[in-house]
Amino acid sequence: MGMFKGQAKQAIGWTALAALGLGSAASAAPLLGFTDKSSEAERALEARFDAALSPSEIRERLKSMSSAPNQVGSPHDKANAEFVLSQFKAWGWDAHIEEFSVLYPTPKHEALELLGPAPFTATLTEPPMPGDATSANTAGALPAWLAFGGDGDVTAELVYVNYGMPDDYKALDRMGVSVKGKIVIVRYGGGWRGLKPKLAQEHGAVGCIIYSDPADDGYGAGDVYPKGAWRPERGIQRGSVLDMPIRAGDPLTPDVGATKDAPRIALADATTIMKIPAVPISYGDAQHFLAALGGEVAPKAWRGGLPLTYHVGGVGAQVHLSIQADWSQKPLYDVIATLKGRETPDQWVIRANHRDGWVYGAYDPLAGHSAMMEEAKSIGALAKTGWRPQRTIIYASWDGEEPGLLGSTEWAEQHAAELKAKAVLYINTDTNGRGFLGFDASYSARRLATQVAADVVDPETGESALRRAFAGIEARALAPEANDAARAEAKDVSRTREIPIGPMGSGSDYTPFVQHLGVASIDFSYRGEDEQGGIYHSAYDTFEHYDRFGDPGMVYGVAMAKTGGRLVLRAADAEIAPLSFTESADLIGENLDQLHKLVDVLRQRAEAQNRAVDDRALVLAADPSHHHTPPTKEDPAPNIDFGALDAAVAQLKISAAAFDAAAASEAGLKPEQRVKVNAILQGAEQALTDGRGLPGRPWYRHLIYAPGVLTGYGAKTLPGVREALESGRWSEAGDYVARTAQVISAQTALLDSATALLKP
Amino acid sequence: MGMFKGQAKQAIGWTALAALGLGSAASAAPLLGFTDKSSEAERALEARFDAALSPSEIRERLKSMSSAPNQVGSPHDKANAEFVLSQFKAWGWDAHIEEFSVLYPTPKHEALELLGPAPFTATLTEPPMPGDATSANTAGALPAWLAFGGDGDVTAELVYVNYGMPDDYKALDRMGVSVKGKIVIVRYGGGWRGLKPKLAQEHGAVGCIIYSDPADDGYGAGDVYPKGAWRPERGIQRGSVLDMPIRAGDPLTPDVGATKDAPRIALADATTIMKIPAVPISYGDAQHFLAALGGEVAPKAWRGGLPLTYHVGGVGAQVHLSIQADWSQKPLYDVIATLKGRETPDQWVIRANHRDGWVYGAYDPLAGHSAMMEEAKSIGALAKTGWRPQRTIIYASWDGEEPGLLGSTEWAEQHAAELKAKAVLYINTDTNGRGFLGFDASYSARRLATQVAADVVDPETGESALRRAFAGIEARALAPEANDAARAEAKDVSRTREIPIGPMGSGSDYTPFVQHLGVASIDFSYRGEDEQGGIYHSAYDTFEHYDRFGDPGMVYGVAMAKTGGRLVLRAADAEIAPLSFTESADLIGENLDQLHKLVDVLRQRAEAQNRAVDDRALVLAADPSHHHTPPTKEDPAPNIDFGALDAAVAQLKISAAAFDAAAASEAGLKPEQRVKVNAILQGAEQALTDGRGLPGRPWYRHLIYAPGVLTGYGAKTLPGVREALESGRWSEAGDYVARTAQVISAQTALLDSATALLKP
What average pLDDT does this structure show over B254-265? Predict the structure, then answer.
């Protein structure tokens, strides 16, 4: 999956940066975790690594792997696994396929009809596109499909609920419209797909239709395929609606690897499967349903790009929706390739990309996958010359990411103990295309990310990927439509001179590693110019489309391989694991500042609303010709005592600075001390987890970043506290202030012990 | 005309206000300019005034006056003038028609065609609407028409320039697209209509098409007529493109009344007429033209609600536009009705609304006009009982407002000397409908406006119009989409407890009075719920439409009459003219604060852009697959010395407070002193004008508020300074700091002399 988050990231008082040499490729500054001397050797190695990268091999591999539908259980997915395995082996890797057996529902029957006044049967399919040969190779392709929606056959009035997010239901309440017993139609966007049926069923709806509005990724975004890159009238966004904010992975094997004979719960007991039927449709289909809706005119912010007046419905459009899935087990084929470390083989650097798509999956995920394989090819070639990394390198090709991070999660659960003991860094990619290098990552990886970005040349400008990312950030802050976030990012970058690191939410395979196990992780891509949004998860995500719009010439494929390769090689070869904590402590400090502000904002908002309730302002301001249920008074946020967190963060900042300084100045560290320091660093991210997990979702253990319960992909920072505050659960917020302070202090203690080793 | 500005105005820590009694109708507090005793008598008079107001008479009058096309020169416009005259006379007013002869171009020939690739001839007409009898009465109706566009017959490629405002042309430059020798197509909105052809011709375009985008006032705004109120597919917005930001009124008789034998300049010398042909079209027509455009995809903010991808064009759409007008003189019929003042007949209170529409004009202007006549009827009835106002009251029914404020401007120019010597207050209305009371007014009228709003009952809520306006402001500040301006307005109202007063820009007949002559003026309407935006200036602005959507039952017509009547009666009867200066000085102070901030913002923006130019950020951030001309360096704002203005405003605040306090506490003022004080107040707004006028437009003499040269309707405050700053004319800004400080000090001196009279 991997997109629709962080797409809008990327612009510095640049002059200063240029002067510092941070923007120029291949600077001579020492690398994090390396000495001056070993930095030099590492850069020489990277030059050899680069030399073997071939855009045409990336392109050919992408073309063949995306030539047929390759979703979980498809013949081509298995063939791709075998091809990947053979390639790894040919390149000298110790590789095997690790198989799991997971619940993966496929369509047995689906139908969607508008019963009146102008009856219409939804097409639920995507016709082949002239000029796109791949799109005609439809044998075995999934129709319109939302994996892990419920089975059901329902007939009911239709209600339009905009993005189907919590505020949308509040607005609907104000209009006096209920979705109870109704089928909802929601548009993509505003939050993760899976929340749409989940919130719909929580509000009593009996079915859920999700459509792609042309304003968002169709003709409103640009010329549609095949004239341009954007979603054509019949394009459908498939996807998973598994309740991943609660737990990723096979719904029947929570917490354990879904091996053939793993203990399984009953289907009926699976908590992450939706109860109501849900289906995705194109805007060509949606127009018929939306045009039939009666009721009030939808609020201004709810109106999309179809040539009609959007109504909230509840009257006028009787709809029949019927879904039946085949709920059998399907096989997963994870391909795992290992290159054993020379010095500390029990320290692992893991690099992965998923392999399964929704249909052909050229952009999502095979562009990233093909670039990753190019890295493995080049590292294999280095190994053939006798070079070995200090740490063990593992390349993984995940299956079943699309339905619910299945391949990565089952593997991570299966190998949990070993990963906790050994994994130093998990490096993930997914989609990729023309544009700007962007990261979501563990905060301690910011320095590493910046240094790598400075050493990779952006193919379009010939400047470093770092400098181009900074230019993008600066340009966006200057644009007429710049918002506070854009300006804040430019300020941050101008102050820190580090590439921005988005906090890790979800949406790709790093989640089981960072969120569940506490393995420091990096996810990155090039993006922002690739125009792949309109074919996302559709049958038009083809090689032809990608080759024309996504990354012509595969030059960003090469840039991804250079970036991924450097991350892997530096993490595998550094004397001291290339993590740094000053930036990390700063970012946690910023997250805490935001919580302080959040409490004030929540209190002020509740007080203002309560005043308005008292003086009847919202009643008097309402247009009496429309229904208006005024809000009631709210419980304003009490004073939350952030003292423990404030103190913990303050101490972390001191200890982080001391560690980073000690690590930077170390020269003649004895090997056994280095091993001890590295062992400590290997556990530093895990220190930020709490085995009790987050409220209502113990699988998520990281207390600094998590996907939001009500955002799905988008990250919430200090989530235990933040989500409690946002939901008005004041005492829970207090509990998590204490727990979060504890994990921060645990990391502080680790850093102090490492510093003591470095400066005896 | 009168709309599309201030529509989005209308919310307070309400509890406090309610406690102060400000929100409750008919409070017993003394009225501004009255003593306790005379306040009581005045309120009794107003109760008698209210009793005679009849919604059914407002409705019948509206129905008959809007039954046929009534633009300038039409038979029904003349018949309406005679009807109005007869009514005034019947109600006991001393009334007459004052005739002028003005240049008013009407269509002789017009044609617009798309030549290829899919040829299409624009319809340029509006078919009758089922269920709307008036709309079928098309004899004599104007087709699609923009008065004062140039004659011409041109064939050229078409370029889409969004709203056609200065920033749009900058964006087009960045895309490497020029409009030189091209025809432009622009959408309504973003600035006044007349600026669109003006800026187009300044950029070298040879023709201009203006269309109504459905996102703004068609199906994107709500259900279209006749199902709902909004603009149907064939609806056309006519209008004037006279260069009114330079000068209003007849283009051939600048500065003098256009009497039959007034000196006239040659048509070729008229500077306020456009040089290129221009035509308005419906979105039904526009879709053909926009779909044909090639070139780059238009920037995100430029895309409207049609089901297509908006392109900037320059290639792909060859267009032929031909316009020929009849440039003969046409008669104007202003109806003037006078009720002589008992005590000071040479102090005039003027109340007016225009009478001419673009077609039937039910909403614009006859709803306001009919309410105004109801006031005159009731005041006439009071006069018949022997009551006489202290000051002279003049009611005026203006002709020719739509093409360029012709009737009001010619009358004001014709009577300029007398008006400068006698006019105390000019009270204007135009459109009216369901919703919230809102004012644009001279700052000194804020107290009066607040008191009147507190004494008029809002028909939908039964609370005062003031309280409802405050509730609206509070609600808007609480809405999810609330912006800084909405929150600032709520704060202002919560602090001042006064109804918001928008600064006077243009868009209706107050302009010649306040902007040119310096007569203190008020413009008000009820608005925000009337859904009249979609039929604005179209053939669907009919009685049927207005009666269904604009003001069913004409209850807001009555509210307008109560509001207008109170303003007139209080201004006419107050012992001391009901102007107050504390609020005025505060508002001028706020405007000055904004200028200080503006200079900082302009400087920071230029510096940031210059840094980005230096470090090539905008070059590096650009997508190389699109054309991108990066900006060049700008001259940052120097330090502007606002010392003279700061000092003048500080002194005005002191003198204003002293005057208001003295006026409030006066009790036994001798009649001859009162006459002197009133004479001073009569000139207080004029003190804020400078005979040399604003830069490049000497007709506009007010130095505190003016329509913006580049906004057209929207006001610019402290315009001499502000517009110089916004255009980077730094030395001119310095000049106008001095001039503006001078006029403020002149008002300060007048107030000091009046205070001296009050406190001898």
Answer: 97
Query: Which CATH number applies to A14-103+330-458+501-573?
Result: 3.40.630.10
* pLDDT at B534 (0 to 100): 97
Is the pLDDT at A105 greater than 50, yes or no? yes
Q: Is the pLDDT of residue B702 over 50?
A: yes
Residue of A nearest to B284 (CA): A307
Of B18, B435, B481, which has the smallest distance from its Cβ to A615's Cβ? B18
Mean pLDDT of chain B: 95
445-464 of B, contacting A, C-beta below 8 A: 460-461, 463
Nearest Cα neighbor of B582 from B678, B741, B719, B443 is: B443
Chain A residues closer than 8 Å to B529 by CB: 623, 625
CB contact, 8 Å: B624 with chain A? Answer: yes
Which residue type is seen at A481?
E
Quote the radius of gyration of chain B (alpha carbons, Å).
Answer: 26
CATH top-level class of B582-758: mainly alpha
Q: What is the pLDDT of residues B311-330, one digit of tens each?
A: 999 998 999 999 999 999 99
**ipTM of this predicted complex?**
0.94
Q: Does B467 touch chain A (CB under 8 A)?
A: yes
Q: Is A309 close to B468, i.e. CB distance below 8 A?
A: no
CA distances from residue A744 to A502, A645, A684, B297 in whole angstroms, order as listed: 19, 8, 10, 49
A window 483-542, beta carbon within 8 A of B: 529
Q: Does A665 touch chain B (CB under 8 A)?
A: no
Q: What is the pTM of this model?
A: 0.95
Length of chain A equals: 760
Q: By the CB < 8 Å criterion, does B306 face chain A?
A: yes
pLDDT of residue B637: 86
B345 cis-preceded (ω within 30 degrees of 0)? no
Q: How many CA atoms lie within 13 A of A388 on its CB side?
A: 12
pLDDT by residue (tens digit) across A264-307? 999 999 999 999 999 999 999 999 999 999 999 999 999 999 99
Cβ-contact A453, A498 below 8 angstroms: no
- Tell me the Cα Rg of chain A: 26
| Residue limits of CATH 1.20.930.40 in chain B | 582-758
Q: Does A223 touch chain B (CB under 8 A)?
A: yes
| Mean pLDDT value across residues A617-624 | 96
Beta-sheet strands, E only, within B294-408:
313-326, 329-339, 344-354, 391-398
A247 touches chain B (CB under 8 A): no
Q: Does B480 touch chain A (CB under 8 A)?
A: yes
> For every residue of A124-170, which 3-state class applies, written as one string?
CCCCCCCCCCHHHCCCCCCCCCEECCCCEEEEEEEEECCCCCHHHHH
Rounded Cα distance, B273 and A641, in Å:
68
Ranges of CATH 3.50.30.30 domains, chain B: 106-327
Domain ranges in chain A with CATH number 3.40.630.10: 14-103+330-458+501-573
CB contact under 8 A, A307 and B305: yes
Closest among A633, A589, A594 to A614, alpha carbons compared: A633
| pLDDT score for B498 | 97
Tell the CATH topology of B14-100+330-573: Aminopeptidase (3.40.630)
Q: What is the CATH number of domain A106-327?
A: 3.50.30.30
Hey, is the C-beta of B11 within 8 angstroms of any chain A C-beta?
Answer: yes
Q: Report pLDDT for A5.
A: 38
Name the residue in chain B with its Cα closest to that of A459. B624
Tell me what pLDDT residue A12 has: 33
Task: Check if the beta carbon of residue B351 is closer than 8 Å to that of residue B524.
Answer: no
Domain ranges in chain B with CATH number 3.40.630.10 = 14-100+330-573
Pick among A464, A614, A615, A632 to test the B interface (most B CBs inside 10 A): A615
CA distance A118 to chain B (A): 18
